[in-house]
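Researcher: Next entry in the queue.
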Amino acid sequence: MQKFIPLSLLLTLAVCSNVLFAQLKVANNGNIGIQLGSGIPLSALSIGGAGNTSNKVDIVGQYTGLNVYRTGTSNIEWNYAINAYCDLVSLNAVGIRGQANATSIQSIGRAWGVLGLAGNATTGYNYGVMGVLQGTANGAGVVGISNGNTDLCIDGKWAGYFSGDIRATGGVLGVAFINTSDKRYKKNIVDIDSKKALTNVIQMLPVEYNLNQVYIDSKGESTKTSQGVFDEKSQVFRKKHYGLIAQDLQKLYPDLVYEDSNGYLSVNYIGIIPLLIESIKELNVEVATLKMSVNSGSASKVKSSGDIPITVTQVAALYQNSPNPFSQTTQIKYYLPATVQSALLCIYDLQGKQLKQINISERGNGSQLIYAAEFAAGIYLYGLIADGNEVDVKRMILTN
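Model: Structure for this entry, 400 residues:
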């Protein structure tokens, strides 16, 4: 018995076929295009756009270009929604590239080049984004760059390497914080004035305080919201802090204070350490001078390193060595009146130990030449003693 296909079914199949082939195109070279309109697929598979001859698959979507969702159960160890691998056979190899940007600054929206979300696996083993450095060559697991230079040479092996400033609104925990301090990174090197350092350190006003929450308004959205800078549940926010007020320190050492784009100030506390060291040295000099003066029985005549000499008579004097600091030789000048019976020029370390004693026989203006080869680099005290009494004590610095 013959079966007849209704004319209406044939017409329906013909229309669907035309629609199908209008949405799906196969080029002469085998490239397939879907929803291209009148375009010709340039990629092996082009969806929503002509694609590119360099790409095997090219997808253009108005909202989400490609959405991959893996579900179900599996007994294997690793499960991937997307697994991308790029063999390093050319100059540059990228496993997955994420890019979200506009040609100019926009007034709305947010942009994430890569957004990683992870959670609710075994506690302690959830990673939003993980970067792993493999092989034996130098590099870093995660690299952050703020100046746009992606051709960055990394010396050594690092879990993270950042070119530019890093900011955290919470605590930073680590075993050690190491500052770059190699001499080759520095120029315009000069000694710190210990007197000035001590004077300024004394003027610093340490305070104790708690963090004050600061709110920042959201931008680029129709509904304005304010977000706190600090996590109020964190220990950093709840605990008391001890430090300096940046505005006060700025008056003494402006180079230790930094200002962000919103006008808030920050302090380089590590930069204060050398100032404290020099202040301690200056105090040590004063203490050593006091000890020497007490031992010589002339505590009432003590002076650490002032410009006005203390004299046994009205004319005996000891002057500052020149040059100071010195690395080869330095000259110490003095004046002794004819009435002085005996005189000594003594050199001490900062612990008060006498290192050298010079008998002075001539009277009037005189000088002694001190050679660097006799001592190690450091800070020394030298004093003039006339008839068993201290005339003055001064400080000299020997450098390498």
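Model: The chain has four domains: 1-95, 112-166, 208-243, 295-398.
Researcher: Noted, moving on.
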